[in-house]
Amino acid sequence: MASLLSLAVWWVMFLESLEAPAETTPATTPATTARPGLQGQMFSVNTGGSVTLRSDDLVSLSSFTVCLRHISELPETQKFFQLNLGGFNSISLSGTFEKFTLKLGNQFSQYSQYFSTAFPSFYYQKWPWTTMCVTWESGGGMAQLWRNGKTSVRKGLFQGQVLIGKPLLTISGFTGQVTDLHVWDYVLSRGEIASFSGGSVAREGTVFSWYSAQYSSSGYVVLEGLQIFSAALPSDQRLPESLAREKADLKMRRKTRRRNSKRGQPRRVTYSIAVTTGNMLNAGTVDDIYLTLVGTEGVSRRTHLNNFGRDFAAGSMESVFGGYP
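Structure for Pentraxin, as requested:
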Protein backbone atom coordinates (compact mmCIF):
# COMPACT_ATOMS: atom_id res chain seq x y z
CA MET A 1 0.00 0.00 0.00
CA ALA A 2 2.81 2.38 0.93
CA SER A 3 4.59 1.64 -2.33
CA LEU A 4 1.44 2.44 -4.33
CA LEU A 5 1.05 5.77 -2.46
CA SER A 6 4.68 6.68 -3.16
CA LEU A 7 4.21 5.82 -6.82
CA ALA A 8 1.11 8.06 -7.02
CA VAL A 9 2.93 10.98 -5.41
CA TRP A 10 5.84 10.56 -7.82
CA TRP A 11 3.45 10.48 -10.82
CA VAL A 12 1.74 13.74 -9.73
CA MET A 13 5.10 15.48 -9.28
CA PHE A 14 6.20 14.24 -12.69
CA LEU A 15 3.09 15.66 -14.40
CA GLU A 16 3.53 19.02 -12.64
CA SER A 17 7.13 19.22 -13.82
CA LEU A 18 5.97 18.82 -17.42
CA GLU A 19 3.51 21.73 -17.12
CA ALA A 20 5.80 24.14 -15.26
CA PRO A 21 7.95 26.45 -17.47
CA ALA A 22 11.67 25.98 -17.28
CA GLU A 23 13.48 28.57 -15.17
CA THR A 24 16.01 30.75 -16.97
CA THR A 25 18.91 32.69 -15.63
CA PRO A 26 18.74 36.36 -16.67
CA ALA A 27 21.73 37.94 -18.36
CA THR A 28 24.07 39.69 -15.98
CA THR A 29 24.76 42.69 -18.20
CA PRO A 30 24.92 45.72 -15.89
CA ALA A 31 22.52 48.61 -16.44
CA THR A 32 21.06 47.04 -19.58
CA THR A 33 17.57 47.59 -20.93
CA ALA A 34 15.44 47.00 -24.00
CA ARG A 35 12.26 49.12 -24.06
CA PRO A 36 11.55 51.87 -23.12
CA GLY A 37 15.26 52.66 -23.46
CA LEU A 38 16.67 56.08 -22.64
CA GLN A 39 14.01 58.47 -23.91
CA GLY A 40 13.86 61.59 -21.75
CA GLN A 41 17.14 60.70 -20.01
CA MET A 42 20.79 61.65 -20.26
CA PHE A 43 24.12 60.25 -19.13
CA SER A 44 26.32 62.47 -16.98
CA VAL A 45 29.78 61.10 -17.77
CA ASN A 46 32.57 62.05 -15.39
CA THR A 47 36.32 61.57 -15.74
CA GLY A 48 37.12 57.90 -16.32
CA GLY A 49 33.49 56.94 -16.99
CA SER A 50 32.21 55.29 -20.16
CA VAL A 51 28.90 54.26 -21.73
CA THR A 52 28.43 51.43 -24.23
CA LEU A 53 25.51 50.80 -26.59
CA ARG A 54 25.36 47.34 -28.13
CA SER A 55 23.43 45.46 -30.77
CA ASP A 56 23.38 41.79 -31.73
CA ASP A 57 22.37 42.56 -35.32
CA LEU A 58 24.88 42.25 -38.15
CA VAL A 59 24.84 45.46 -40.18
CA SER A 60 26.34 46.55 -43.49
CA LEU A 61 26.86 50.30 -43.77
CA SER A 62 27.40 51.87 -47.18
CA SER A 63 26.15 55.13 -45.66
CA PHE A 64 25.26 56.37 -42.20
CA THR A 65 24.20 59.28 -40.02
CA VAL A 66 25.14 59.68 -36.35
CA CYS A 67 23.43 62.39 -34.29
CA LEU A 68 23.70 63.31 -30.61
CA ARG A 69 23.35 66.20 -28.18
CA HIS A 70 25.96 67.02 -25.58
CA ILE A 71 26.98 69.57 -22.96
CA SER A 72 30.65 69.96 -22.14
CA GLU A 73 32.97 72.74 -21.02
CA LEU A 74 36.40 71.14 -21.23
CA PRO A 75 38.76 73.01 -23.58
CA GLU A 76 40.85 69.98 -24.46
CA THR A 77 40.04 67.42 -27.15
CA GLN A 78 37.39 64.86 -26.24
CA LYS A 79 36.11 61.76 -28.02
CA PHE A 80 32.35 62.05 -28.47
CA PHE A 81 31.80 58.50 -29.69
CA GLN A 82 33.47 55.52 -31.31
CA LEU A 83 31.42 53.03 -33.32
CA ASN A 84 33.20 49.70 -33.81
CA LEU A 85 32.10 46.94 -36.17
CA GLY A 86 35.27 44.86 -35.90
CA GLY A 87 38.72 45.19 -37.46
CA PHE A 88 39.25 48.46 -39.32
CA ASN A 89 35.49 48.99 -39.52
CA SER A 90 35.26 51.84 -37.04
CA ILE A 91 33.90 55.39 -36.90
CA SER A 92 34.91 58.01 -34.35
CA LEU A 93 34.38 61.71 -33.74
CA SER A 94 36.67 63.74 -31.50
CA GLY A 95 37.50 67.40 -30.98
CA THR A 96 36.56 70.44 -28.96
CA PHE A 97 34.20 73.37 -29.49
CA GLU A 98 34.39 73.97 -33.27
CA LYS A 99 37.38 71.90 -34.43
CA PHE A 100 36.63 68.21 -34.91
CA THR A 101 38.22 65.11 -36.41
CA LEU A 102 36.12 62.40 -38.08
CA LYS A 103 37.88 59.07 -38.53
CA LEU A 104 36.65 56.19 -40.70
CA GLY A 105 38.83 53.12 -40.69
CA ASN A 106 42.41 54.33 -41.16
CA GLN A 107 41.45 57.67 -42.76
CA PHE A 108 40.40 60.95 -41.19
CA SER A 109 39.17 64.47 -42.01
CA GLN A 110 39.20 67.63 -39.92
CA TYR A 111 36.45 70.24 -39.76
CA SER A 112 36.73 73.74 -38.33
CA GLN A 113 34.30 76.00 -40.21
CA TYR A 114 30.51 75.81 -40.32
CA PHE A 115 28.10 77.64 -42.56
CA SER A 116 24.53 78.74 -41.98
CA THR A 117 21.74 77.00 -43.86
CA ALA A 118 18.41 78.45 -44.96
CA PHE A 119 16.84 77.46 -41.65
CA PRO A 120 16.31 80.23 -39.06
CA SER A 121 19.23 80.17 -36.65
CA PHE A 122 17.10 80.98 -33.60
CA TYR A 123 15.72 77.43 -33.68
CA TYR A 124 19.14 76.18 -32.63
CA GLN A 125 19.93 78.66 -29.85
CA LYS A 126 17.28 77.79 -27.27
CA TRP A 127 18.98 74.81 -25.69
CA PRO A 128 21.89 74.30 -23.33
CA TRP A 129 22.72 71.42 -25.69
CA THR A 130 25.11 71.35 -28.62
CA THR A 131 23.76 69.21 -31.45
CA MET A 132 26.17 67.18 -33.59
CA CYS A 133 25.39 65.13 -36.70
CA VAL A 134 27.81 63.25 -38.96
CA THR A 135 26.84 61.89 -42.39
CA TRP A 136 28.77 59.74 -44.88
CA GLU A 137 28.01 57.81 -48.06
CA SER A 138 30.35 55.30 -49.66
CA GLY A 139 29.70 56.05 -53.34
CA GLY A 140 31.34 59.46 -53.43
CA GLY A 141 32.97 59.10 -50.03
CA MET A 142 31.51 62.45 -49.00
CA ALA A 143 31.48 63.06 -45.23
CA GLN A 144 29.83 66.07 -43.64
CA LEU A 145 29.56 67.44 -40.12
CA TRP A 146 26.61 69.44 -38.78
CA ARG A 147 26.89 71.51 -35.60
CA ASN A 148 23.82 73.27 -34.21
CA GLY A 149 22.19 73.31 -37.62
CA LYS A 150 25.27 74.69 -39.41
CA THR A 151 27.09 72.57 -41.95
CA SER A 152 30.76 71.96 -42.67
CA VAL A 153 32.44 71.56 -46.03
CA ARG A 154 31.85 68.11 -47.54
CA LYS A 155 35.10 66.13 -47.64
CA GLY A 156 36.06 62.84 -49.28
CA LEU A 157 36.76 59.98 -46.91
CA PHE A 158 36.92 56.16 -47.18
CA GLN A 159 35.39 56.15 -50.67
CA GLY A 160 33.95 52.87 -51.94
CA GLN A 161 34.23 51.10 -48.60
CA VAL A 162 31.47 49.26 -46.73
CA LEU A 163 31.46 48.84 -42.95
CA ILE A 164 30.28 45.38 -41.88
CA GLY A 165 29.92 43.87 -38.41
CA LYS A 166 28.00 43.91 -35.15
CA PRO A 167 27.92 47.52 -33.95
CA LEU A 168 29.31 48.48 -30.56
CA LEU A 169 29.21 52.19 -29.73
CA THR A 170 31.32 53.59 -26.89
CA ILE A 171 31.31 57.01 -25.25
CA SER A 172 34.68 57.20 -23.51
CA GLY A 173 37.17 60.01 -23.06
CA PHE A 174 34.28 62.46 -22.76
CA THR A 175 33.21 64.52 -19.74
CA GLY A 176 29.77 66.11 -19.64
CA GLN A 177 26.19 65.21 -20.50
CA VAL A 178 25.04 63.28 -23.57
CA THR A 179 21.55 62.41 -24.80
CA ASP A 180 19.53 61.50 -27.91
CA LEU A 181 22.23 59.47 -29.62
CA HIS A 182 20.88 57.84 -32.78
CA VAL A 183 22.60 56.00 -35.64
CA TRP A 184 20.93 55.48 -39.03
CA ASP A 185 22.08 53.25 -41.89
CA TYR A 186 21.40 56.02 -44.40
CA VAL A 187 22.04 59.75 -44.80
CA LEU A 188 19.36 61.93 -43.24
CA SER A 189 17.91 64.70 -45.37
CA ARG A 190 18.80 68.31 -44.65
CA GLY A 191 15.29 68.86 -43.29
CA GLU A 192 15.56 65.90 -40.92
CA ILE A 193 18.88 67.17 -39.59
CA ALA A 194 17.36 70.62 -39.11
CA SER A 195 14.47 69.02 -37.23
CA PHE A 196 16.91 67.16 -34.98
CA SER A 197 18.89 70.34 -34.40
CA GLY A 198 15.66 72.10 -33.45
CA GLY A 199 14.84 69.58 -30.72
CA SER A 200 12.81 66.79 -32.31
CA VAL A 201 13.55 63.36 -33.75
CA ALA A 202 11.54 62.69 -36.92
CA ARG A 203 12.56 59.01 -37.10
CA GLU A 204 14.56 57.10 -34.52
CA GLY A 205 17.84 55.46 -35.45
CA THR A 206 17.86 52.18 -37.37
CA VAL A 207 21.24 50.92 -36.11
CA PHE A 208 21.02 52.45 -32.63
CA SER A 209 18.00 54.21 -31.19
CA TRP A 210 18.14 56.16 -27.93
CA TYR A 211 14.57 54.99 -27.34
CA SER A 212 15.38 51.27 -27.33
CA ALA A 213 19.12 51.05 -26.74
CA GLN A 214 20.75 48.20 -24.85
CA TYR A 215 23.38 49.91 -22.79
CA SER A 216 25.90 49.45 -20.02
CA SER A 217 28.10 51.89 -18.14
CA SER A 218 31.29 51.74 -16.13
CA GLY A 219 33.19 54.18 -13.94
CA TYR A 220 31.61 57.39 -12.71
CA VAL A 221 28.48 57.64 -14.87
CA VAL A 222 25.04 58.80 -13.68
CA LEU A 223 21.79 58.27 -15.59
CA GLU A 224 19.51 61.28 -15.01
CA GLY A 225 16.34 62.87 -16.33
CA LEU A 226 16.56 65.75 -18.77
CA GLN A 227 14.24 67.89 -16.64
CA ILE A 228 17.10 69.03 -14.38
CA PHE A 229 17.86 71.60 -17.09
CA SER A 230 15.23 74.31 -17.34
CA ALA A 231 15.61 74.37 -21.11
CA ALA A 232 15.89 70.60 -21.50
CA LEU A 233 14.25 68.85 -24.41
CA PRO A 234 10.72 67.63 -23.67
CA SER A 235 10.44 63.86 -23.36
CA ASP A 236 7.66 63.70 -25.94
CA GLN A 237 10.00 65.40 -28.45
CA ARG A 238 7.53 68.18 -29.27
CA LEU A 239 8.82 71.69 -29.83
CA PRO A 240 8.34 73.81 -26.72
CA GLU A 241 5.57 76.38 -26.89
CA SER A 242 7.90 79.33 -27.53
CA LEU A 243 9.60 77.64 -30.49
CA ALA A 244 6.30 76.36 -31.86
CA ARG A 245 4.92 79.90 -31.73
CA GLU A 246 7.99 81.30 -33.51
CA LYS A 247 7.74 78.60 -36.15
CA ALA A 248 4.04 79.37 -36.71
CA ASP A 249 4.76 83.12 -36.93
CA LEU A 250 7.51 82.51 -39.47
CA LYS A 251 5.17 80.36 -41.57
CA MET A 252 2.50 83.08 -41.49
CA ARG A 253 4.99 85.79 -42.51
CA ARG A 254 6.18 83.71 -45.45
CA LYS A 255 2.58 83.06 -46.50
CA THR A 256 1.84 86.80 -46.36
CA ARG A 257 4.97 87.57 -48.36
CA ARG A 258 3.96 85.13 -51.10
CA ARG A 259 0.44 86.57 -51.22
CA ASN A 260 1.72 90.14 -51.48
CA SER A 261 4.16 89.11 -54.18
CA LYS A 262 1.31 87.70 -56.28
CA ARG A 263 -0.53 91.01 -55.91
CA GLY A 264 2.41 92.86 -57.39
CA GLN A 265 3.57 94.42 -54.14
CA PRO A 266 7.35 94.76 -53.74
CA ARG A 267 9.05 92.07 -51.68
CA ARG A 268 11.20 93.22 -48.81
CA VAL A 269 12.61 91.71 -45.67
CA THR A 270 11.27 93.04 -42.39
CA TYR A 271 12.81 92.29 -39.04
CA SER A 272 11.53 91.64 -35.55
CA ILE A 273 13.64 91.95 -32.41
CA ALA A 274 14.68 88.55 -31.02
CA VAL A 275 17.33 89.48 -28.45
CA THR A 276 18.12 92.82 -26.80
CA THR A 277 21.36 93.47 -24.91
CA GLY A 278 21.85 96.74 -23.05
CA ASN A 279 19.92 99.27 -21.00
CA MET A 280 17.18 100.92 -23.05
CA LEU A 281 16.82 103.76 -20.55
CA ASN A 282 20.47 104.72 -20.90
CA ALA A 283 20.73 104.18 -24.64
CA GLY A 284 22.86 106.83 -26.30
CA THR A 285 24.05 108.19 -22.96
CA VAL A 286 25.75 105.39 -21.04
CA ASP A 287 25.05 102.01 -22.59
CA ASP A 288 24.96 100.91 -26.20
CA ILE A 289 22.19 98.65 -27.46
CA TYR A 290 22.74 95.43 -29.37
CA LEU A 291 19.78 93.88 -31.17
CA THR A 292 19.55 90.48 -32.82
CA LEU A 293 16.95 90.73 -35.59
CA VAL A 294 15.16 87.82 -37.24
CA GLY A 295 13.89 88.49 -40.75
CA THR A 296 10.92 87.19 -42.71
CA GLU A 297 13.31 85.50 -45.12
CA GLY A 298 14.72 83.39 -42.29
CA VAL A 299 17.90 85.46 -42.05
CA SER A 300 19.33 87.05 -38.94
CA ARG A 301 21.42 90.15 -38.39
CA ARG A 302 22.99 91.79 -35.36
CA THR A 303 22.69 95.58 -35.08
CA HIS A 304 24.66 97.92 -32.83
CA LEU A 305 22.73 101.01 -31.72
CA ASN A 306 24.81 103.73 -30.07
CA ASN A 307 22.44 106.64 -30.76
CA PHE A 308 19.11 104.93 -30.23
CA GLY A 309 17.68 107.68 -28.04
CA ARG A 310 18.59 110.48 -30.46
CA ASP A 311 17.32 108.67 -33.57
CA PHE A 312 14.15 107.51 -31.83
CA ALA A 313 13.36 111.06 -30.72
CA ALA A 314 13.91 112.33 -34.26
CA GLY A 315 11.60 109.66 -35.65
CA SER A 316 14.37 108.32 -37.87
CA MET A 317 13.90 104.60 -37.23
CA GLU A 318 15.27 103.78 -40.68
CA SER A 319 18.64 105.19 -39.63
CA VAL A 320 18.48 103.02 -36.52
CA PHE A 321 17.84 99.77 -38.36
CA GLY A 322 19.74 100.63 -41.51
CA GLY A 323 16.66 100.41 -43.75
CA TYR A 324 15.79 97.29 -45.71
CA PRO A 325 18.51 95.14 -47.24
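The CA atoms of residues 61 and 319 lie 56 Å apart.
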